[in-house]
Amino acid sequence: MPSFDEVLKEAGEFGRFQKRVFFLLCQTGITFSFLFASVVFLGQAPGSYWCRIPGAVELSERCGWTLEEEQNFTVLPLRRGNGSSSGECERLDMVWDTSVSCASPLAHYGNHSAGNLPLATCHDSWVYKQPHSSIVSEYNLVCSNSWMLDLSQAILNLGFLAGAFTLGYAADRYGRILIYPLSCFGVGICGIIVAFAPNFTVFLIFRFLQGVFGKGTWMTCYVIVTEIVGSDQRIVGIVIQMFFTLGIMILPGIAYLVPTWQGIQLAISLPNFLFLLYYWMVPESPRWLLTRRKGEKALKIMHNIAKRNGKYLSPHYSEITINNEEVSNPSFLDLVRTPRMRRYTLILMYAWFASALIYQGLVMRLGIVGGNLYLDFFISGAVELPAALLILLTIDRIGRRLPFGISSIVAGIACFITAFLPEDIPWLKTTVATLGRLGITMAFEIVYLVNTELYPTTLRNFGVSLCSSLCDLGGIIAPFLLFRLAAIWLELPLIIFSILAVVCGLLVLLLPETKGISLPETVEDVEQLS
């Protein structure tokens, strides 16, 4: 009986059928990037805000003040009298009644200067110049509550982490094309609820669930594409990530055109419902069907692929080699039970963690500094395109392992040099730091491909999801590591990043080269890799 790769070669390894499926599933990269980076625009800091004094509403109504006049009478005296207070997080500790003079509201306090008037911390009485334009003004995530904005992104990453375990497992047990549309539906529904969340608690709960389902869409579509093409075309996984970058570049345009955070949230969530049509347009992975002992269904799909590609399967292709391993549900023990699987799993988990932590750390460090937020964010996304192009130019000529290791080491060296460059040469410091970002972006994109190619079909979706969950852990840790270490010494985070990157680069050189090899079907196939 022929093997699956032999049948795939006969049916076409990257014909019209695979190109159509590839293009359809690439759209998932765009919507996933929207979810991944949306907090930058959902959580924009309000232009200006101030704390309203109790009773000021009634006083404003009686006196006919505009908001600007109310601010002049009740906040500016506080700023003039107490230079350390801006009136944003503190207010005068008083309750004004309607007997206060409209022309001189502080006259009631006699000879007290504004600097001697009692102060109180503001809790829930903020007035925003642009109310409801972001979740910051919607849920009062300012002053002592500002940490909650970081919490919202951490919760999303926790959702990614949970999705990697639960939906990665489900896709290996119940099928890729069943979990994919369910995940898309979950992202869409949760996104709508997030947009109309009545309070911050509800917002966080469904933001978490959106992360769970979002990870399911991204990882499942990536695995489907990798499993239906031949070994020479598996770099399509890198191209999918170029669509992620494309989404990063599109997002600021959406945010610029849509004035409210609810509108942005709906604009990035609703497209997921279109992906439900893929259930009838994208077939189940025939590789997965073979691992579940469903050879007849797999062969039927292969005949359909051949027909769509304008080819014809030979009559003797009446059966495909069935995986002889006993069908079982994947577990973490399967990833560490044998020597080579254990080594690959531990190295890949570290590579995911280090790449994500350094990538997000460098993005936050270079930041979206001053200027036009929308334009700067677009440019920061465009920086990632050369990384994908470099991968496409090298990965089929040199292989996976060397570009993976060298890009990580280059990123580490660039971080180390940047830390000791003088501040009076900003262009050089920025250039070297950008080189570090380019290197770690390459490593971040190659780890997807290598992870997929090193795991057997029986464990592929679960294994990739589990290892990539360390990426989410790195994303949670990155802001805390960056800001806490920067408080000690501004360049200290770069030293840590450089160590992590160099260690990552050396470790991945211990992985086998996967260029041109057939995807392993069983754990035994993985153990035979050298």
Protein model, in words:
With 530 residues, the chain is mainly alpha-helical. It has 2 domains: 1-72 and 131-324, Up-down Bundle (Growth Hormone, Chain: A), CATH 1.20.1250.20; 327-529, Growth Hormone, Chain: A (Up-down Bundle), CATH 1.20.1250.20. The protein is built from 24 helices and 4 strands. It has helices at 4-11, 16-37, 39-42, 56-63, 67-74, 76-81, 135-138, 147-174, 176-195, 200-227, 236-257, 261-269, 278-281, 286-291, 295-308, 332-336, 339-366, 373-382, 385-394, 401-420, 426-454, 460-488, 492-508, 523-527, and strands at residues 49-51, 90-92, 119-121, 126-128. The strands form 2 sheets. Strands 1-4 form a two-stranded antiparallel sheet. A two-stranded antiparallel sheet has the order 2-3. Helix 8 (147-174) packs antiparallel against helix 9. The chain starts with a helix and ends with a helix. The model has no long low-confidence stretch (mean pLDDT 80). It catalyses: L-histidyl-L-proline diketopiperazine(in) = L-histidyl-L-proline diketopiperazine(out); spermidine(in) = spermidine(out); agmatine(out) = agmatine(in); histamine(out) = histamine(in). The chain crosses the membrane at residues 21-42, 154-171, 178-198, 204-225, 237-258, 264-282, 347-368, 374-395, 402-421, 427-450, 462-482, 488-511. It is a multi-pass membrane protein.
Our count of helices gives 24
The CATH architecture of the largest domain would be: Up-down Bundle
**Number of domains as seen in the coordinates:** 2
Beta-strand segment tally:
4
What share of residues are in beta strands?
Answer: under 5%
Query: Separation of termini?
Result: 26 Å
The neighbouring-strand order within the major sheet is: 1-4
Q: Helicity range of the residues?
A: 55-70%
User: Could you tell me the radius of gyration in angstroms?
Assistant: 27 Å
- The SS-based structural class is mainly alpha
At CATH level 3, the topology of the largest domain is Growth Hormone, Chain: A
CATH class of the largest domain: Mainly Alpha
Main sheet overview: 2 strands, antiparallel
**pLDDT < 50 stretches:** none
Mean pLDDT: 80
The sequence of SSEs as H and E is HHHEHHHEEEHHHHHHHHHHHHHHHHHH
What general form does the structure show? elongated
Q: For this structure, what is the CATH homologous superfamily of the largest domain?
A: MFS general substrate transporter like domains
